Structure prediction request, 214 residues.
Amino acid sequence: MEMYVDSANLEEIRQAQTLGLADGVTTNPTLLAKEGDDPMAMLQEICKLVQGPVHAEVLSLDYEGMLKEGRELAKMADNVVVKIPMLKAGLQAAKAFRAEGIPTNLTLIFSPGQAILAAKAGATYVCPFLGRLDDIGHDGLYLLQQIKSIFKANPDLETRIIAASIRTPGHVVELAQMGIDILTVPSKVLSQLERHPLSDAGIAQFLEDAKKFK
Ligand code: E4P
Prediction:
C-alpha cells in the first residue's frame, strides 16, 4: 500500500516524509491556491522535494488545451503525473498521453462506470473522491469497493486506484483493509491517525511512575 500526501504545503509534505508517509503527492487547484504562491513554482519545489509521483492538474476543459498544458507539466520534472478531470475530452487526452508515455490520473471519479472508461482510455491512475460522496449522503467507501472488484475481475485493466477525498482515520483503515493501491491523505487525518487518548494517558502514567524509581 502506498500513502501520498494530499497537500501542496511544503512543510506538511516534509513532515509526512519524516514518517515515511510521502510515497507521492497529490495536488489540485484548490490546494495550490491555498498556498498563495505561483502554482508552477510551487509544483517545481514539490517535485524536487519528493522522489515519487507528483500529481499536477490541468485547468483546460478541451482536448487541445489539456494536451498543451499536460505536456508543459510533464516537462517540468520526471516525476509529474498529469491530472485530468473526468470529461470526454479528459478520456481522449488520457489516451493520447498514454501513447506519448506521459502518466495520467483521471480525477473527479464518482461512479464505477467512470472508472471503467478511464481505465479503458489508458489512464495510469483513477482518483475516486469518497469524502465528497459521503458529503452528499452516498457511500464513498462502497464506490472504492466496486472499482477495486472491477479491476480485480479484469486484470487487463492496469489502472491503479488512488483513494482521494479522505476525511477520517476510519476511511484510511477501511481502505487499507480493502487493499486499495494508494491512499492520498490530508495532513489533518495523518495527525488524527497518530494520536490516541489511551496512548497519551499511558505515556503520562509511565512518566509519573518513573518518578518512583529508586
Ligand atoms: C486529490 O487528488 C483530491 O483532489 C483531493 O483528495 C480532494 O479532496 P477534498 O474532497 O477534500 O477536496
